Amino acid sequence: MADNIGNPMLRMPSTAKKGELVEIRSLIMHPMLTGLTKDKSGKLIPAHFIQTVTATFNGKPLLDIDWSTAVSANPFLAFKMRAEDNGTLKVVWKDNQNGDWSAESKLTVS
């Protein structure tokens, strides 16, 4: 199962006009297990889910999300930000088993 975890994807325009709203879309491959399901032998499968998602632009916080077992497998997240300056968007996902993934994308504002 470890091969199916991670591979964060981040999609956003690379350029925008000053003041324009830019949509950011992200997807990460993760099983998001609740800890309530059983394997074929009837044993509970331990919970394994993304706990936090943070997004920063040029190191300044944009959002900080706390997730739980209620989020579906391979979660998709979309949000918007206003393009004011050139910079780098960074999104970080952390799970309850010390997994840590990140993705970055650059934005040029004209």
Automatic annotation (TrEMBL):
Residues 13-105 form the Sulphur oxidation protein SoxZ domain. It holds the Pfam family SoxZ. Coiled coil: none annotated. This is Thiosulfate oxidation carrier complex protein SoxZ. It comes from Acidithiobacillus sulfuriphilus.
